[in-house]
Structures are given as structure tokens and as C-alpha cells.
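Whiteboard transcription, Tuesday session. T.W. wrote the C-alpha cells on the left side:
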């Protein structure tokens, strides 16, 4: 799959050029300029966990606006399209990390979380548990003064614990049940993210997950209220919108990048599901940004 050359990427390194796997940053007015983030929209090459302690900050994540206030957390998985729209009085913290920072088992488990799902209905969390806030504070302290023995492991454990807390408190209870149907839905989400560009059929995912299409459909319907095919299409449409909004690729090129052999079919599908043509969608985004 070709990269997206026209969307500025937010690389995972310090201003001094050092490559990192995890970093904790203080958030304050003007922090994004100090970190030299690309102005305007950019695509994350890392996962980002942002929380506010005072003030507010405004963000656009994959076409949805979030105003982050005190005691709120915004989670953005790798690949998200993000724009920071300001926060003159903001004060908080930001954790940047990639999959390589975690153990293979931790990374595998987190890929099934709804927080990491690009189709997650909301990325804004309000932790109801005081322990979540304490864990965020401990992450900042551990990063500033690592434990002499096993500091990286301690930071890993704290980060994974926070993500588990957020997953448990910020998402509908029916999604978090631990029965086999919920587990199958989570495994499907991770598989879809890995293969949505080249695999559009329900049959592929059912076979890969060692279940029947009917079993898969029942699990997804119970957990999310959608059909399997609907979710496949929604993921394709999200990526199509990203291309349309933030690259100069022609519609026919976008169709091929997303695994459609017939650009005309892709155009008809986009119009049917979005309610307007791809060209009109792109034009409206351009007008909004002017």
C-alpha cells in the first residue's frame, strides 16, 4: 500500500532528532510550536493520549471536533488525521507511544480495543475513577524520573493500565462484556484494520476468524448494532474521506488505493453511502478550511 505523500506526518522524534518509542510531554499554551508539529492537519505516526488538568484545547480528529476540558482525556490512535486548533489556557499532559514500546502480547491485546478502532464513535473520555487520574500522574512522574531497575517496564505497565481503565469506563457496557461474541467482535476490528484496503468481503474475515459469516454477523450486531458489511464499508469510507480531504489524489486513484478495480463503482458507492459525490465532499472540505 502506497503512503500518503500529501498529508504532513507528525514524526515520532524529539526536536533534537532522537528517535523515541514513548515520551510524556507537558501541555501548555504554545507547546505544539515548541514540539514543531506540522501546522494544520497532520497524520500521526504514533498513538497519542492527551489529558487536560486546567483550561481547554480544541482538536479536529478525522472530521470530528473535540473540545477537551479539565479531567478529560482524548485518545488518538496511529493513523488519525489531527489538527490542533488552539488552547490559550490549556495545561495538562500528553503521552506519545508506538507499538514497539509495548511487548508483543500487550500490543496484540490493545489492537482489539475500541479506543484503537478508527470507527470508534467518540475519542473523548471523562474518567470516572480517581485511580485513572492517579495513573496518568504516575506516568508523568515515571517518565521524568525512571525507576532505576525496570523503568521501561514500569512505564509500560502504567500505560497499559490507563488504557484498560479508559476502555472500561468510556465505552458502552455492552461492548465490554467478556463473552465469546464480544471477543469475536474485537478480533474482527483488529483484522479489519490490517486488511480493509485489499479485503472487502465478509467471507474473508469469517474464514480468517474461524467462524461462519452468520456467527460473525451476530457478534458484530450484538456489540455494535451494524452488519459486518456495513463496518467494512464504513472503514473504507473513512479512509476515502481522508484521501479526499487531505491529498490531491484523483477520485480514480483513491479508488485503486482502496482496492476497487472499478472507479465508477467506487464513485457510485461513495455517493450512495455519504449522500453526495466524492467531488462535492472534497469541495466542501476545502471551502470549510478557507
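and on the right, the sequence the group agreed on:
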Amino acid at each position: 500500500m502506497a503512503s500518503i505523500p500529501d498529508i504532513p506526518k507528525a514524526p515520532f522524534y524529539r526536536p533534537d532528532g532522537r528517535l523515541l518509542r514513548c515520551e510524556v510531554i507537558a501541555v501548555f499554551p504554545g507547546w505544539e510550536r515548541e514540539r514543531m508539529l506540522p501546522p494544520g492537519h497532520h497524520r500521526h505516526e504514533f498513538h497519542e493520549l492527551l489529558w487536560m488538568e486546567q483550561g481547554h484545547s480544541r482538536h479536529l480528529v478525522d472530521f470530528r471536533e473535540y473540545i477537551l476540558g479539565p479531567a478529560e482525556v482524548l485518545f488518538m490512535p496511529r493513523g488519525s488525521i489531527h489538527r490542533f486548533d488552539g488552547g490559550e489556557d490549556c495545561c495538562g499532559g500528553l503521552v506519545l507511544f508506538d507499538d514497539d514500546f509495548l511487548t508483543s502480547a500487550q500490543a496484540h491485546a490493545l489492537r482489539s480495543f475500541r479506543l484503537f478502532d478508527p470507527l470508534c464513535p467518540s475519542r473523548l473520555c471523562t474518567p470516572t475513577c480517581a485511580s485513572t487520574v492517579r495513573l496518568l500522574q504516575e506516568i508523568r512522574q515515571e517518565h521524568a524520573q525512571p525507576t532505576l531497575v525496570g523503568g521501561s517496564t514500569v512505564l509500560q505497565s502504567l500505560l497499559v493500565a490507563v488504557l484498560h481503565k479508559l476502555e472500561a469506563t468510556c465505552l458502552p457496557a455492552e461492548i465490554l462484556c467478556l463473552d465469546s461474541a464480544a471477543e469475536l467482535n474485537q478480533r474482527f476490528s483488529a483484522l479489519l484494520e490490517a486488511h480493509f484496503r485489499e479485503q472487502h468481503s465478509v467471507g474473508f474475515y469469517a474464514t480468517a476468524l474461524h467462524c461462519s459469516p452468520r456467527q460473525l454477523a451476530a457478534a458484530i450486531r450484538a456489540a455494535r448494532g451494524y452488519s459486518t458489511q456495513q463496518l467494512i464499508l464504513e472503514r473504507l469510507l473513512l479512509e476515502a474521506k481522508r484521501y479526499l480531504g487531505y491529498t490531491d489524489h484523483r477520485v480514480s486513484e483513491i479508488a485503486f488505493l482502496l482496492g476497487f478495480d472499478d472507479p465508477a463503482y467506487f464513485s457510485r458507492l461513495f455517493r450512495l453511502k455519504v449522500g453526495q459525490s466524492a467531488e462535492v465532499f472534497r469541495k466542501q472540505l476545502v471551502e470549510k478550511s478557507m
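Someone added at the bottom: Confidence is low (pLDDT under 50) at residues 1-5, 173-178.
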